[in-house]
Amino acid sequence: MAAKVSSTSPKFTRDLPESRRQQLIEATARCLARDGLAGTSVRHVAAEAGVSPGLVRHHFEGMQDLVAETYRATGKQIAALLDEALAAAGPSAEARLHAFIETSFKPPLLDADLLAVWLAFWSLTRTDPQIHAIHAKVYAGYRRLLEEMIAALAREHGIAIETRQSALALTALLDGLWLEHCLDPKTFSAAEAAAIAHRWVDGLKKGS
């Protein structure tokens, strides 16, 4: 899962190197969302950003490096959005779990462009060692957060929960619902997807 891809092309002046790198990453995300992995190249990213291909190569070794950095940046954006929602939910583990679910099924995380970008990353996970390593790190952090909240939920309600397996199950449930809804929103609504996940957490709380 990732943040909404901006449709505004960046304007380059005398930006700092990190600012330029970020603008190129955002341009890459827009290209991936619109044209897919096969239609995204250094030339296309340069055109999207309004710069020369040489400037792209100055900041990145090539498309492999640029896509990897875009994956890393997208993962950080998602983590920041989820952290913000959890902070607003307060200290209750149950409230935090439900906030995590609600945020997962609302914009900017619930977005067809984000799906297109995420699918590009997923498609490289088995063949690109760098992407595989980033994927492992992103999802390890995602599952670790869920494990911590599930363990806290168990303490709050005085029940025994297998936290690792429960976190794996909830991750699969959220990813599956998110993917299916983005592929075909007519199948079920975002509210229905969230309700399914909320009921799963309620069942976990009851020990079922």
Automatic annotation (TrEMBL):
Coiled coil: none annotated. Signal peptide: none annotated. Residues 41-60 bind DNA. InterPro entries: BetI_C, DNA-bd_HTH_TetR-type_CS, Homeodomain-like_sf, HTH-type_TetR-like_transc_reg, HTH_TetR, Tet_transcr_reg_TetR-rel_C_sf. Residues 18-78 form the HTH tetR-type domain. Residues 1-11 have a biased composition (Polar residues). Keywords: DNA-binding, Repressor, Transcription, Transcription regulation. Gene3D superfamilies: Tetracycline Repressor, domain 2 (1.10.357.10). Residues 1-20 are annotated as: Disordered. This is Transcriptional regulator BetI.
